[in-house]
UniProtKB/TrEMBL annotation:
InterPro entries: Acyl_CoA_acyltransferase, Bact_Acetyltransf, GNAT_dom. This is GNAT family acetyltransferase. Gene3D superfamilies: 3.40.630.30. Residues 1-145 form the N-acetyltransferase domain. Keywords: Acyltransferase, Transferase.
Amino acid sequence: MLIRPFLEEDTEAVVALWEECGLTRPWNDPRRDIARKLTVQRELFLVGVDDGTEAAGAGQPIATAMAGFDGHRGWVYYVAVSPARQGERLGAQLMAEAERLLTGLGCPKINIQIRSGNDRVIGFYEHLGFSPDGALGYGKRLIAD
Ligand SMILES: CC(C)(COP(=O)(O)OP(=O)(O)OC[C@H]1O[C@@H](n2cnc3c(N)ncnc32)[C@H](O)[C@@H]1OP(=O)(O)O)[C@@H](O)C(=O)NCCC(=O)NCCS
């Protein structure tokens, strides 16, 4: 897998990947989420593409991680690997690249949010060295999509 920043032409494939991975929600318009991310640290919106040269699907997005540093914490959203390619350590590679870029910006700690009910990914993050913070996540919507 080759990891590179998101390009506008990835949009439809990336939205399809997120849908396939069950990451989209009715209250989050994924295309608006992408458009907003392209205005802030777009170089931290990572896409993993199949680097097979001849294989069908070569060059297609197969994984994503949308990272950002707010000056205090790094955040990573939309961590996704195509279901057909899960278990090949692609998610770990993508998170390692996000960590490398965030560390380079002086980011001291990464936070991730796991939706209630998505318990099956807990093992993945714990495997990568993440542990529970003991904090309760609260949010307040400012712009309705
Ligand atoms: C979570 C997800 C990104 C993991 O990607 P992946 O490429 O399948 O995971 P990897 O193969 O890189 O796994 C890395 C390591 O974690 C381990 N691991 C992965 N999932 C695990 C789990 N549920 N429990 C325990 N260990 C797990 C792997 O065995 C691997 O171990 P290794 O380093 O010894 O080989 C992928 O399953 C996914 O896209 N899920 C759906 C979307 C989602 O829920 N995203 C998270 C939103 S918070």
